[in-house]
Amino acid sequence: MADINTRVEQYVKLRDLIKAKNDEHKKAMKPFNETLEQLNSVLLAHLNTMGGNSVSTDGGTVYRTEKKSAPLADAQAFMDYVIANQAWDLLDRKANVTAVEDHINTNGVPPAGVNFTSTFVVGVRRA
Asked: For the chain, which ranges sit under pLDDT 70?
């Protein structure tokens, strides 16, 4: 069986090869992705011009969907608003992993209702 040094060297070489292949693929795909974005703009402009949400053609159906996002410009102002108005529905419920780990380190157990797991993965740096 090969020693650990050999396995680490193999890992680094394979990881570098995978990155190089992925970079090549990304570069090769760039003109296709750019053309697809241009076609997307043309099709969306057509739908906007005609005031419709979809068009069915012999080649297929084009339709538009609305993608929404709500990033916070001022987290404290948002939290102040939620608390002052008791607008809890504006929040997503999710435990903060770092805070939960700190709680476990301090109290020996996770907060009620939280399942905490920790797994290890291998990381390798080049020499």
From this structure: none
